[in-house]
Give the backbone structure.
Amino acid sequence: MTDLIMHNFGVEAPAENPEKLRRWLEKRIGYMLDHETDLLLSTLYRLDIDEQKIKKVLHSGTGAPIAQGLAELVLARQRQRHQTKQKIRVDQSSFYWGEEE
């Protein structure tokens, strides 16, 4: 899970524990909000974060930091992807690759 986050956010993230990863991600997203907004939005799009959820975080009047909300969305989506991969294991040996035996 952390590999995909590290790859998409362009910096090596500490992966020792989930809390460190969350804090690192919040800081990185906070920086991107201030300096690389377009890159942040395209990264969220590539990670397949629901647009309505992003809008809700960006326009929330709860006083919660935006970077924290976006980091939670990223982590939740990556957990969801990981769970899906665990459920759906495909035996690639059963695929036909276009070669005759």
